[in-house]
Amino acid sequence: MRYARLLVAACAAAVSIQAQAGLFDDEEARARVEKLRAEITDLGKRVDIASKNQLDFANQFETLKGDISRLRGQVEVLTYELEAAQKRQKDFYVDLDNRLRKLEGGGDAKPAADGKSTAAAADPAAETRDYEAALGAFRSAKYKDAFALLGAFIKAYPKSGFQPSAHYWAASSLYQLKDHARAAELFGTVASNWPDDAKAPDALLNQANALAAGGDAKNSRKALELLVEKYPASQAAQSAKARLKKK
């Protein structure tokens, strides 16, 4: 009888220990679940922060691109103004020299060899005025008018020192009008006819842009390679090198 009582007591103790162990296991599992939930919540917050930072970086990048575009526009305008000032100064001295020759010779200047004269030779001030009017239309984003005025200028003043720039801005007008094929051709004319002009490297870069926009990736790459080969030290060539690495 005593033995039976001891056996019952032992069984009861074993059941109690198992119940406590089960309770401990449940509490440990709950603790682990809560810990995992906390980690998931923390990870979610970190993802949200990373996404926000990525968006901020993207916005900053777009802002920087806009600033660069604006600064390039300012550089182009300043370059134009410098060219125009140099041209006016040159025309002034040419005109002054012609006047002095007339006075020294006591008569009119000799006619051209073929007996013809152009408006550009007769009136350099008109040449500068017409060029400024054409470029003014481009700066005002009147690209159709700009292209028409620049085309008229190119025909009227074939010997003008503004010819490279006139072709360049005419090509730029076509590019803005999304006439990429003709823009690429005209940019190529600048680079081939006036390879020593300051705009030649940019003309090749823009030719590559126009070709790419028109879907001609092969010739776009060739234009970039030619740019790097002919004008390796130019800023345009640095841009071309970066683009070639990505292709």
Can you describe this structure?
The structure is a single chain. The protein has 247 residues and is mostly helical. The protein is 83% helix and 0% strand. The chain contains nine helices and no strands. The protein has helices at residues 2-105, 119-122, 124-139, 143-156, 163-176, 180-193, 200-213, 217-230, 235-246. Helix 4 (143-156) runs antiparallel to helix 5. The protein is elongated. The chain starts with a helix and ends with a helix.
Q: For the terminal residues, how far apart are their CA atoms?
A: 94 Å
Structural class: mainly alpha
Computed CA radius of gyration, to the nearest angstrom: 38 Å
Low-confidence stretches: 106-120
Please report the total strand number as a whole number: 0
Strand content: under 5%
> What value does the average pLDDT take?
77
Query: What is the general shape?
Result: elongated
Summarize the model shown.
With 247 residues, this protein is an all-alpha fold. The protein is built from nine helices and no strands. The longest helix is centred in the N-terminal third of the chain and has 104 residues.
